[in-house]
Structure formats: C-alpha cells, structure tokens
Amino acid sequence: MSMELPMLSALLNTATPALPDAWLVRMYLSLGWAVVLAAMGLGLLARLSFKARCALVGVLFVWALVPGPLSPTYWLGLAFQAPSLASVLLGGWLVWRGLFSRAGAAKPKVPAPVWWWLMLPAVLLGYALLLDTLALLPWQLVSWGFSGALLLALMAWTLMPWLLGGHQDVAEVPLWIAPGALLLFAATRLPSGNLWDALMDPLLWLLLQGVLLGHLRRGYRNRLAYRT
To answer: In the chain, what are the domain boundaries?
Structure first.
C-alpha cells in the first residue's frame, strides 16, 4: 500500500510536468508544418499527374523548412504554434495515400464504431478545450493534459474501436493515428508537454467538424432516400 500511493500520486500529478527538449521543439515545429502543408497542398491539387504531385509535395516541404519570415512555418507558428502529433501523422498518411495509392481508389469508408467512439468525442473535446481556454468551465481541463493517468486512459479509449469492429478496412482507415500520437507523446512529450496538444489543434478540430457534418448529412440523405 505504501508503494501504491506514491505511484498513484505521480500519475495524477500535474504540478511538475515533463517538457520536451528545446531543440526537439524547434525541429518538430518545422518538420511538423512541412508534413501538414504538403498534405494540404496535395489534397487541393490531387488531380495532378504523379510527377507533378511529387514535385508539389517536395516544394511545399522544402519551403516549410526555410528559416525566417520567408517560410510559412514562421507565420503558422505565430498563429497556431506547432501542429499536433495527430495532425502530423494524419498528414503523413494523406501524403503517402495521395502519392502511392491506386488511381481511382475508392474513398475510405469509416466504420460506424470509429465515428461514435473517436470522431464525435474528438469534436466535443475541442469545444471543451475552447471553453476551458475562455475560463468558462468549473474545472481546469487543460491542466489534466500533464497527468500520466490521462495518457493511460486515452490509450485504452483509442484502442476500443479495434475491439468494436473498427479494425475492418484498416488499410483504408488510419486507426493507428490516435494511439500512435499517444505513443510518440509518451516518448518525446511533443509538442508542448501537454497531452491535449498532441491530440488536437485548431486546424485538425475544424477538419474533424467538417468531416463529421458531411457524414451526418450523407446519413440524413440516405434515410430520406430509403423512405421514398
């Protein structure tokens, strides 16, 4: 019992967080935005030829690594700080899929458990973090991100879709992104030492809302078509 209490106290402690090394933060800022920008550019110009897409990804990636105000990373870092680990992993997967997937491949069909176990909670989490940032919640949700217990709880949560059948079509649905981001955070503490910053950022939150609304809209249209 005497050993269990200090271990539990360490897991729940948020007063002395483990922070990433400064050199690692600087490197991640450039590389992270480089991957995200490459994914965004590829998504907007996905109809280009393979060579043109490769050139586009290369130009955006190198441009993001340029030091100083001439780089988009400089301004994105001022506005949004660093992207989340989840955004970087998602961006890397989108770049790989956009460059090397089969031509005309069908869009990923996300299994239902993933929508309601990961997507919707992620959107609601963004709203909760926003309210906490505005000091509109009775508790300090952001500070929980420094707790080791939260890391264990979220790892278990993000693995649940595999048990609920979300492992189907896993080649088309990157279920590994959320647990992968948690594992990278545990190893590096990037990008800020706070777990919430590893899982969510403003751009990813907006993207998730758009995807979720599109999913709900398609479901509504399908129900109307079924009734008629």
So the answer is: 20-227
Residue 62, pLDDT above cutoff 60: yes
Residues 6 or more apart in contact with residue 139 via CB below 8 angstroms:
132
Question: Average pLDDT, stretch 12-30?
Answer: 82
The residue with tokens 């922070």 is 19
Indicate whether 170 pLDDT > 50: no
CA 212 to chain centre: 15
Strand, coil or helix: what is 140? coil
Rounded Cα distance, 189 and 182, in Å: 9
Query: CA–CA separation, 209 vs 204, rounded Å?
Result: 9
Q: Does a cis peptide bond (omega within 30 degrees of 0) precede residue 191? A: yes
Nearest to 129 by CA among 100, 150, 108, 104: 150
3-state secondary structure string, 60-105? HHHHHHCCCCCCHHHHHHHHHCCCCHHHHHHHHHHHHHHHHCCCCC
The letter for the amino acid at 174 is P
- Which residues have C-beta within 8 Å of that of residue 66, sequence separation ≥ 6? 73
